Amino acid sequence: MDVPLGAFLPAAVIIALIVIPIGIALVTILLLKRMDRRGKRRSPLTDKLPYQAGAQARQRVDAITTAITERAMQVTLVGPMIMLALLLPRVKWSELRFGWGDWLIVSGTVLAVIGLAWRAVGLAKERRKWQDGMRAEIAAAQQLDRLQAQDCLILHDIPAEKSNLDHVVVGPTAVFVVETKSRRKPGTGKVSATVAYDGNALKFPDWAETKPLAQARAQARWLSDYLNGETGEATPVIPVICLPGWFVQASPEGQRADVRVINPKMTGVFIATHQRARMDTARRNRIVHALHKRYPESSD
């Protein structure tokens, strides 16, 4: 008995709905790996970053969290896979017919899978951006923390009104808010990781930016107003932009500008005492206490 070719169509569609999402997932993973290998811009960070307290334990916690997520996903697949194993052999494929509603579901499923894959690519790019930013902040923090030996008080990742302050340095004579920026370099060699600063813009090898300067000024104004309200004393705050891995070339205008631009190893700006009076210990303690109040209570 000849079976019409159309009788196999429902079976082919059902099998495709099982195989295609898996194929798209694998292709997405391979594309993401290829994009990472062929990226034209590279991280400017070349120094090894020493572990912070609890770093290896945090890595282990992250690995366990990933494993738990994977197991949870596997558990959710057990039921549908068993159902398919039980029901598919009992299906009379020659009697199946697809109506417009069935095709609508199939089309919606295909579009949903493609949309999820596209979102996964976007999340991977976003993850890399946050990962670069995290490494840059760690690199900056490790350099800034050394200033404690020179009578500076350092706090990191302080919640502000609508954002966060990457670092705050309470130096002997002034308060600094440090905004760390991660920018990938476009090539190799020192020239590709050199940024020029003239007081008006950050001039990277093949692009320029002014937004970080405005952001640093806004953060300094907010922190100054906050400290004024908390301590009852006028507390000017000096904005600083930190670019880990970049060689900063500041012109005379850039060196005199209100926003300082540094590599995190250029820590002299925080301990310079010329033209500024030294703050007494009690005042600095009040400033640090006010900053500590911005951190949330532990939820553990």
UniProtKB/TrEMBL annotation:
This is NERD domain-containing protein. The chain crosses the membrane at residues 6-32, 72-91, 103-121. The keyword Membrane applies. The lineage of its organism: Bacteria, Pseudomonadati, Pseudomonadota, Gammaproteobacteria, Lysobacterales. PROSITE patterns: NERD (PS50965). Keywords: Membrane, Transmembrane, Transmembrane helix. Residues 132-246 form the NERD domain.
